[in-house]
Design a protein that fits this description.
- The complex is a heterodimer of chains A (about 425) and B (about 260).
- Helices cover about 55% and strands about 15% of the residues of chain A.
- Chain A is an alpha+beta fold and about 425 residues long.
- Chain A has 3 domains: about 1-55 and about 285-415, no CATH class; about 60-110 and about 245-275, no CATH class; about 115-240, no CATH class.
- With about 260 residues, chain B is α/β, with parallel strands linked by helices.
- In chain B, helix 3 (about 105-115) packs across helix 4 (about 125-135) and helix 4 crosses helix 5 (about 150-160).
- Chain B starts with a strand and ends with a helix.
- Chains A and B meet through helix 1, helix 11, helix 12 and helix 14 of A and helix 2 and helix 3 of B.
Chain lengths: ~425, ~260
């Protein structure tokens, strides 16, 4: 222990006696570590932002959408990025009966809701009018999505079966059309038809994908079908909530087998629907940001390597300069190992202090990006630990050759060295 | 006859430079008894340095055996030699060889850092004792660059003493000092010898060698003669008769003053 302290003391003395040279040497490591940590922090920041967005969509939800025939179809590219297991999908449609079948057969899903997705419609209240997207769905929608009602109530199963002209509206619609008026019980016109507002959703915030749920009007899917949009009886998608979010894969294959039977698909034929989940997007998105940030960090790490070579260079100079000191120490009883450890300690301290200062430098960059740029950056423990152990390793690797040269010096010759 | 500290039997050292063989030592026999103060004299090229290196365990002989303090060291490896140097040899060099970035205490402590065994007493105590025995009190925190040559050599002697070595090996310890300071250093060695330390002094000056009890003459890698000094010079007596530089300057100043007044 005493000897370790002694070694550290000697190392600091030697670094101290040549401050300019030591700091120039460290600069390489500082810039390298700073760049690596900063790049990885920006990557982590981006990932955190994406995760936050997707998590607000719920990680325990799966979405079933009709096959669109294109190779891979919607989300195909994402799936390919994720694992490369691209499944062929043929064109097909989803119907109400699919929802009924799923509800009957499932063991892993809770609520299941069909959705007629956001069709842009004109909304009018008194003299105000404008556009908003309208979603037709069932009473299960609320619990699948995990949305909350702030006023009034969501529509019920009987509203759905009775084709009631009721609507639940997002908080932005309330602000835009009603202002301070209590919207519950008021009548709005959707594409010219009267709907009674029976409830208001709590503010959800942007999911980062598509139109915000706050700017949407929700009506019973039957009403939407028969009274508003007419059209064929296909539905746009089915959303379902898992009983256990850890059973995502099982639930997806369960849905697949139920729907294949329902759609009478032969074993050799491809699905005419596809299943996706925010978790998949999450994985894909974090894979993409990870690949990106590790690539950039790898490039930045090259400067760490250059810094390491700088350390080796300086250590060689230091060994030559201190040949006499090495001779004295050896004459007095220092073993080769003692000298080796002394010089290794010095190079490790040099590179580790460079690493620590580099982390500080990364904090500075990260702060600058946050304050003056639009990039979000999140400094996590991983890159710091990584960078510090990397710089310690660099001190060790690039210090070992100079230290070995020092350790091997002959005491007689080094005592004679001028 | 007392206990033999150094027992050298027929050692030779051959250096190979390219294809030439250089015989630096040609069969040297040498015994040093515990508590002796011995001088080794010889012209340059006589093998003095080679013998010193072997006695100091910095090098091993090509042939022959060398026993230091009862331990045969002629066949030891580098690490073992380092251990022996640390425990049994105290070096005092002509050029002091102190670490310039370390103060007196840190320099004196150095051998303790590489010491493997348990130290009998607190380090601080050992260091202070060594400092006192060479008369360096009050200069503990000074670095070599802030000290005179004589003071530096005192630090070096204290460093050589700290591990209580079996022998003290002084290689031209007064070579870089003025005669008065050299005399002071010799006086320290004589004091240490009085306390029972075994000291080997390498020099090429007869006046210095005559401070010891025995002089060995080395020539062409062989000990060619030996001389017992029945009445060694006493450094303390010489110092008494040797006016210090200060006194001399004072006298000249006085003289000038008197001349002016007349």
């Amino acid at each position: 222990m005493k000897r370790i302290i002694e070694n550290i003391k000697v190392a600091f003395k030697s670094i101290n006696s040549n401050k300019l040279r030591a700091s120039l040497t460290m600069l390489g490591i500082i810039i390298g570590v700073g760049a690596v940590v900063a790049v990885m922090s920006v990557g982590a920041g981006a990932e955190a932002a994406i995760t936050e967005n997707l998590q607000s969509m719920g990680t325990n939800i799966i979405t079933i959408s009709p096959g669109r025939g294109m190779p891979g179809g919607e989300g195909g590219m994402m799936r390919e990025l994720r694992s490369g297991d691209r499944e062929e999908v043929v064109e097909g449609d989803l119907y109400f009966e699919d929802v009924t079948a799923l509800k009957k057969e499932t063991t892993l899903l809770n609520e299941i809701a069909p959705v007629l997705t956001g069709r842009s419609s004109t909304i009018a209240y008194m003299s105000w009018n404008g556009d908003a997207s309208v979603i037709g769905t069932t009473e299960d929608f609320l619990s699948v999505e995990g949305y909350k009602i702030s006023e009034g109530s969501f529509f019920t199963a009987s509203d759905v079966s009775n084709l009631s002209n009721v609507a639940v509206i997002g908080s932005t619609i309330v602000d835009d059309y009603f202002g301070k008026i209590d919207p519950v019980g008021e009548v709005i016109k959707v594409n010219g038809k009267n709907f009674v507002v029976i409830g208001v959703l709590d503010t959800i915030g942007s999911t980062g994908f598509g139109s915000s749920p706050d700017e949407t009007v929700y009506i019973p899917i039957t009403t939407a079908h028969y009274k508003l949009f007419g059209g064929p009886s296909e539905i746009d998608s089915i959303i379902a909530k898992l009983k256990d979010e850890n059973q995502l894969d099982q639930a997806m294959s369960e849905v697949k087998s139920i729907l294949r039977i329902q759609h009478k698909i032969l074993p050799a034929e491809a699905n005419d629907f596809q299943i996706s989940s925010p978790t998949q997007f999450l994985e894909t998105a974090s894979n993409v940001t990870n690949i990106l940030s590790y690539t950039l960090a790898g490039i930045a790490a090259i400067s760490l390597l250059v810094g390491g070579i700088g350390i080796m260079n300086i250590m060689f100079v230091s060994v030559t300069e201190r040949t006499r000191e090495i001779g004295i120490r050896k004459a007095i009883g220092a073993k080769n190992r003692d000298i080796l450890i002394q010089f290794l300690t010095e190079s490790i301290i040099l590179s580790l202090s460079g690493g620590i200062l580099g982390v500080g430098f990364a904090y500075l960059i990260s702060w600058l990006l946050k304050t003056f740029g639009s990039l979000s950056s999140l400094i996590t423990a991983t890159p710091i630990i990584l960078a510090l152990s990397f710089s310690t390793a660099i001190g060790l690797i690039f210090g070992i050759f100079p230290a070995m040269r020092a350790a091997r010096l002959s005491p007689i010759e080094s005592l004679r060295y001028e | 006859m007392g206990e033999k500290v150094i027992e050298i039997k027929n050692i030779s050292k051959v250096y190979k430079i390219d294809n030439f063989k250089v015989n630096a030592l040609n069969g040297i026999n040498l015994n040093v008894i515990k508590g002796e103060f011995v001088a080794i004299m010889g012209p340059s090229g006589s093998g003095k340095s080679t013998l010193m290196n072997i006695i100091g365990c910095l090098d091993t002989p090509t042939m022959g055996s060398y026993t230091l303090d009862g331990q045969d060291i002629s066949k030891l490896n580098d690490n073992k030699l380092a251990e022996i140097r640390n425990k049994k040899v105290g070096f005092v060099f002509q050029t002091f060889n102190l670490l310039s970035k370390f103060n007196a205490i840190d320099n004196i402590e150095l051998p303790l850092i590489y010491y493997k065994g348990r130290v009998s007493r607190p380090r601080k105590e050992l260091i202070m004792e060594a400092i006192n025995s060479v008369g360096l009190k009050g200069r503990e925190k000074h670095r070599p660059s802030q000290m005179s040559g004589g003071e530096r050599q005192r630090v070096a002697i204290a460093r050589a003493l700290i591990n209580s070595p079996s022998i003290i090996l002084a290689d031209e310890p007064t070579g870089n000092l003025d005669s008065r300071t050299g005399e002071e250093i010799l006086s320290i060695f004589q004091d240490l010898n009085m306390q029972g330390r075994t000291i080997l002094l390498v020099t090429h000056e007869m006046d210095i060698a005559k401070h010891t009890e025995r002089i060995l003459y080395l020539k062409d890698g062989l000990i060619t003669g030996e001389e017992k000094i029945t009445d060694p010079l006493r450094a303390k007596d010489i110092l008494k008769d040797m006016p210090s530089l200060e006194d001399r300057i004072n006298k000249i100043e006085e003289k000038n003053h008197n001349e002016k007044n007349n």
